[in-house]
């Protein structure tokens, strides 16, 4: 089974700019929508609070792996830990890698996330709840579907 | 291409419809939430703390069993019920979900560095 996600995106900004957006904890927090407690450092745990609307109760926690300036930034984490009642720390984390490459127009960013084969099946229900606008939306869909009959 | 994918989406919805219908009930949804820890529960345990009778809980569990969300395991004289995430969400769909989150995050990064 395919256990990784890969995304490639062309950014019209120099590699140095993209590197800063990825590795400066305040800048990272702005686009990723998380309020981090402090700077990233290899081997160190990064903690914070998600600011993404609807998920403000979610804690952010990742372990920074590699920081090779303007080339590679990576961390391990537990993807989208939405349920505060669950202790995700016992689960095997996934590895997120950001690779940067200079192009004629700016930067090619390749993001990979791997290690999903270790994700427990329970997580799938969670994803199901969060999926496609979340459960509230699904309830509305069911309601209108039933009402049409 | 677009025709093919839209019929695929439709087929997916048809498969999911009975699952959604089974979950479209407060009692059953709370049963699934309880069972989603992965541990098997007896009817006695599931009835505890609920205003409903054993019979009513059993009826709801059978509905969930029929669409394959839970399955029962017999231990001695008692049936225990266990959550089965398979029909709800396969790994492929979980990856699609995480993948979509990345799409959103990266488009925010794009507008952030390009402004």
Write up this protein:
The complex is a heterodimer of chains A (about 150) and B (about 120). Chain A has about 150 residues and is an alpha+beta fold. Chain A folds into two domains: about 5-120, START domain (Alpha-D-Glucose-1,6-Bisphosphate, Chain A, domain 4), CATH 3.30.530; about 120-149. Chain A has helices at about 15-25, 25-30, 120-130, 135-149; strands at about 5-10, 35, 45-50, 60-70, 70-75, 95-100, 105-115. In chain A, α1 (about 15-25) crosses α2 (about 25-30). Helix content of chain B is about 65%, strand content about 10%. Chain B contains five helices and three strands. In chain B, α2 crosses α4. The two termini of chain B are about 35 Å apart. Mean pLDDT of chain B is about 80; it is low at about 1-15.
Category from helices, strands and their pairing of chain A: alpha+beta
Helical amount of chain B: 55-70%
Q: From the 3D coordinates, which CATH architecture of the largest domain in chain A would you assign? A: 2-Layer Sandwich
Describe the strand arrangement of the main beta sheet of chain B, using strand numbers: 1-3-2
CATH topology of the largest domain in chain B: Arc Repressor Mutant, subunit A
Q: What best-fitting shape of chain B do the alpha-carbon axes yield? A: elongated
At the first level of CATH, the class of the largest domain in chain B is Mainly Alpha
* Annotation, overall tally of beta strands of chain B: 3
The greatest interface here is:
A-B, 42 and 33 residues
* Helix run count of chain A: 4
What is the subunit organization of this protein?
A: heterodimer
User: First CA to last CA of chain B: what distance?
Assistant: 35 Å
Number of strands of chain A: 7
- The end-to-end distance of chain A, rounded to whole angstroms, is 39 Å
What portion of the residues of chain B fall into strands of 2 or more residues?
A: 5-15%
Please state the average pLDDT score of chain B: 78
Q: Within the CATH hierarchy, at the fold level, what is the topology of the largest domain in chain A?
A: Alpha-D-Glucose-1,6-Bisphosphate, Chain A, domain 4
């Amino acid at each position: 089974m395919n256990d990784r996600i890969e995304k490639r995106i062309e950014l019209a900004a120099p590699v140095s700019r993209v590197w800063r957006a990825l590795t400066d904890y305040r800048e990272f927090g702005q686009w990723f929508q998380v309020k981090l407690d402090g700077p990233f450092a290899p081997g160190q745990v990064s903690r914070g609070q998600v600011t993404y609307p609807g998920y403000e109760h979610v804690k952010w926690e990742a372990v920074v792996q590699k920081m090779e300036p303007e080339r590679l930034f990576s961390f391990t984490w537990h993807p989208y830990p939405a349920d505060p009642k669950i202790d995700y720390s016992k689960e095997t984390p996934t590895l997120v890698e950001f690779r940067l490459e200079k192009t004629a127009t700016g930067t090619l960013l390749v993001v990979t996330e791997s290690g999903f084969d270790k994700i427990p099946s329970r997580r799938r229900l969670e994803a199901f709840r969060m999926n496609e606008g979340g459960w509230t939306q699904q309830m509305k869909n069911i309601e209108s579907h039933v009402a049409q009959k | 291409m677009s025709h093919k994918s839209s019929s695929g989406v439709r087929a997916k919805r048809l498969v999911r419809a009975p699952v959604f219908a089974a979950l479209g009930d407060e009692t059953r949804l709370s049963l699934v939430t309880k069972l989603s820890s992965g541990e098997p529960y007896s009817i006695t345990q599931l009835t505890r703390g609920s205003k409903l009778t054993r019979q009513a809980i059993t009826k709801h569990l059978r509905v969930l069993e029929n669409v394959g969300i839970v399955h029962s395991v017999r231990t001695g004289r008692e049936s225990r019920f266990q959550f089965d995430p398979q029909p709800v969400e396969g790994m492929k769909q979980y990856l699609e979900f995480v993948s979509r989150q990345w799409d959103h995050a990266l488009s925010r990064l794009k507008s952030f560095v390009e402004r």
